[in-house]
Specification:
With 255 residues, the chain is α+β, with helices and mostly antiparallel strands. The chain has helices at residues 9-30, 36-43, 47-59, 76-81, 83-89, 94-106, 148-154, 159-171, 181-194, 231-236, 238-254; strands at residues 34-35, 63-66, 71-74, 109-116, 119-126, 141-143, 197-200, 207-213, 223-230.
């Protein structure tokens, strides 16, 4: 039989799932009704498959379609889907209160991150009110072995666990330069010595992140809490930011 160069069944399923979440994340960013053309342009989808996807989400009850405006909008079913997660991990709404307090006291963007496979993923972001800021979207992923929040999350692991992850990262790196054991452990050990991570100009020139580990939460989850902003401002307020982060981590730990 002839071999096909097209996507496999598994790849097609992954692409379909990815597109569903890309649509929902687009609504989360825009926070307004969107016309089909706006979705197609923003996400680069072909008209036929993009239209079919949006109609499917309406049929399943995840989107409403306003015929008079020809616009889509998420239903309350979307809001209900993940409503239990934050309360399961951080009861009594304490996470939002803590992150908002950090934003007010530091004036910078506040990040909650967790490991997602070989990445540190920003699962909750409270953005700075500063008009000029480095935009960090919720859901953003940073390399686990090459980012401040990644080194922070790795610092909670044993050296053996870190080495296994390093080998996986190198195996998936393709033609990109490989990461040595010494390079990675130098970064991780620095975080362990300081008790916090401080990355500068690592992902975006001029931007940095200071982060601390949170006490291990329910279901064994490990989170990092960070402050992101211009390196110059983070450096000038480093002591205050670290103190505020540690106080926040202690408060979350008590819950």
């Amino acid at each position: 039989c002839e071999m096909s160069d097209g996507p496999t069944l598994a790849e097609s399923a992954i692409n379909s799932a990815r597109r569903v979440f890309e649509v929902l994340e687009l609504f989360d960013r825009e926070r307004r009704p969107l016309m089909l053309k706006e979705v197609l342009v923003a996400l680069g989808y072909p008209a036929s498959s993009g239209s079919a996807l949006m109609k499917s989400l309406v049929t399943l009850g995840y989107l409403d379609y306003d015929l008079s405006r020809r616009a889509y909008f998420p239903t309350m079913r979307i809001a209900a889907l993940g409503a239990w997660v934050q309360s399961a991990l951080f009861p009594d709404g304490v996470l939002d209160a803590v992150m908002d307090h950090l934003r007010q006291t530091t004036g910078e963007t506040v990040i909650l991150a967790a490991q997602s496979d070989l990445a540190a993923q920003y699962i909750h972001v409270v953005r700075s009110a500063e008009p000029l800021q480095f935009v960090i979207p919720p859901g953003a992923r940073r390399p686990l072995a090459n980012s401040g929040m990644g080194w922070l999350l790795l610092s909670a692991k044993t050296d053996a666990e870190i080495e296994r992850l390093r080998r996986r990262i190198n195996a998936e790196a393709g033609d990109r330069p490989k990461l040595s054991h010494g390079q990675l452990m130098e970064r991780v050990d620095e975080v362990r010595r300081r008790g916090y991570a401080f990355s500068k100009n690592n992902i975006t020139e001029g931007a940095g992140v200071i982060g601390v580990l949170l006490p291990k939460g329910p279901f064994g989850r490990v989170f990092g809490l960070g402050i992101g902003g211009p390196v110059a401002r983070l450096e000038s307020h480093e002591g205050m930011i670290v103190a505020e982060l540690r106080a926040a981590a202690a408060r979350l730990g008590r819950t």
